[in-house]
Structures are given as structure tokens and as C-alpha cells.
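Q: Fold this one first, please.
A: Sequence and structure below.
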Amino acid sequence: MKIGHLARRTGCTVETIRYYEQAGLLPAPSRSDGNYRIYTEQHAERLTFIRNCRALDMTHDEIRELLRIKDENARDCGDVDMLLDEHIGHVSRRIEELAALQAQLVALRESCGQHRPVQECGILRGLIDTLPEVENHAGIHGGHRHGVHG
């Protein structure tokens, strides 16, 4: 199948498929005489696997490791269990960070509960003052640890 068919079938964009190829997550397909990429059922299966992992917020390195284990047909799934346990830990820490961020935002919002002149706005004044946890949680909203493709 051509890349457009693979994209429609898996719900990915063509750009994302190319990105996963460049990232080494999806093997390069063979080429037709006209130099079109020709994908197989294995590409569709692997791409679905990658998309499902991304939906679980796994990093490319985590996905790469799961694919390595899967491709090597390891004797048991102990390494998979361990990788997932580590990922659950990352998610738990992120939930705690997000809860702390939410508490900061609520406190900031509560600092200005009425319509005032902008010069007296408690929220704007609070953003000028140093918030106690901003430095620790800046990465939560400042960027995504996985990049732009998903």
C-alpha cells in the first residue's frame, strides 16, 4: 500500500509516518519502480502499535525498547512489565506535578475575585511576584517531552 493508504488506515498523517521512519521507529519501506514507498501489513501493525504507545504518553525511547523486545521475541515479558512499571511511576509523578500546578492556578485566580482596574489585578500582580513552585513545574506547560509528532 502507498503512504496515503497507510495514513488513512491507521489514522496517522503522512508527515507523522515519515517522522516515525526518520526516528527509526518504523522501518523504511521498499520502493516501487516509480520510487513510491510501498508499505506492508507489518508496517500498519507496527504503526498502530506506535500510535497506541503514544496514546499512553510513552516516549520514543520507551517505544523503541518495547519494539526491540517484541522484535527479539524475548522468552518472557518481564522487561515489558518493568518498562511499564517505570512509565506508571512517571505518570504518577506527573499527576502530582499537575495537581500542584492546579493548586497554584486556583490560588492565583482567587487573588482577584472581582472586576478591578488592571493596575489592581491580583492575578497580574501575582504573576510579577515569585510563585513558590513555578520553577519546579515550568516544564509541564513549557513543552512536551516527546516532541510534536504523535
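Q: Good. Now the second chain.
A: Here it is, same layout.
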Amino acid sequence: MKKIILIISFICLANCCHSQSGWVQQNSGTTANLYSVKFINSQTGWCVGDSGKILKTTNGGISWIPSLPNYPANYRSITFTNSNIGYIIAYSGLMLKSTNMGLNWFDISFRNGVLNSLFFVNDSIGFVGGGYFV
């Protein structure tokens, strides 16, 4: 009997929860696949994807502005360690860095594998994940 009451209570409580309410779909203005997004505050963020797409928003994602770093690649991940320093990795092994809030990007690649994921613990310690070229 206790199990039945517990199950009924759980079902009633689960029906009252509305996780992730308030999400609104936004149009990126591109048809390229986008894989990663990073916001440094509630208004300013970037997303990256295939065909060298780097998009920036300064209004919380309402509109996205394309940015061309002159390194066309299939980008997989973007992160910022603070409001100025950002990193992007590409499937090809390309790694880009910005020191001015994403206005300019420069190549810091080691190009020894396929890169998919990027994470920084702080401004000087970071990890990349992926595999090796065959």
C-alpha cells in the first residue's frame, strides 16, 4: 500500500514540474550546422559550426552577426575563459584564439588530430577532446 501511495504521489508531483519553460527558438540566419554556443554574459555570445561559421550576438540571441576569421573549417566547439580570451577548435585540428572578445582570431593549431570538444578550467589550463587522423 505504501508503494502505491508513493507512486501516485510521484506521478502527481511529476505532472506539476515544467522544466526548461521559457525557452524561445531563435533564427541564426544560417543553414549551416551549428555545434557549440558560449555566452559570456546575458547578452553577448558566439556560436560555431560547419563551413567556417562563427556567429556573434550582442542582444541575447535575438539576432546573430556572421564573423569571418579567414580560417574556413568545420568548427566544433567554442569557449571563453574570460570576457576577452576565447578559443575555437575545428574538426580538422585547427585551433583559434581571440584576445579581444572575438573581434580577431589567430591560429594556434597543433593539428595532430580530429578535435570535437574544448573545455578550460581557468585562463591557462584547458582540455581538448577528439581522435587521431588515420
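Q: Anything worth noting on the second one?
A: The chain has one helix and ten strands.
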